[in-house]
Amino acid sequence: MDAERFLTDGVVRLRRFRADDPAIDFAVLWYQDREVLDGAGGLDEKPFDRTRIERMYRYLDTHAELYIIEVRDRAQWLPIGDVALAPHTTPIVIGHPGWRSRGIGTRVLALIIGRARELGYPAVWAKEIWAHNVRSQRLFERMGFRRVEEGVDDQGRSWYRYRLDL
């Protein structure tokens, strides 16, 4: 795999997703986790099965730059989540619970912001962050994003939209 397919700060590595990616096996575990599901789809989100994850990853890989988030664990890189960069959204999931609240999201978002600058994006967006997902709100606000919109989806769930002008 060539160097262009990685973004790294030495602690965190974002590896471009590939169709036969073994990280899908990890993702099946991540998307069973209640905290991940609450952040991804709201408080009533059902666990994702492998088929749904593969479909989601195919969509993101077609419409965005999809990365597997990896951290150095002993002598190897361990997949712990996923992130995508698209013109109007930046979904991020730290799927492995042991790596949450350890600064990984901040590092990931810094790498994604750098990549967006390279691509000439005028802004980076967090399309929908659920009102109950305070951890994500704090992450994006800490990185300089501004809350620019709020709304309620068709199921009555409140969300916020964030933007960082580049």
TrEMBL record:
Q: Which InterPro entries match?
A: Acyl_CoA_acyltransferase, GNAT_dom
Which Gene3D superfamilies does the record cross-reference, listed alphabetically? 3.40.630.30
Gene Ontology terms, MF aspect: acyltransferase activity, transferring groups other than amino-acyl groups
What the entry lists under CDD domains is as follows:
NAT_SF
One Pfam family cited in the UniProt record for this chain: Acetyltransf_3
Q: Which residues form the N-acetyltransferase domain?
A: 12-166
Q: Which SUPFAM superfamilies match?
A: Acyl-CoA N-acyltransferases (Nat)
| Entry keyword set | Transferase
In terms of superkingdom, the source organism counts as: Bacteria
Q: Which PROSITE patterns match?
A: GNAT
- What is the official name of this protein in its record? GNAT family N-acetyltransferase
State the species of origin: Sulfobacillus harzensis
Source taxonomy lineage? Bacteria, Bacillati, Bacillota, Clostridia, Eubacteriales
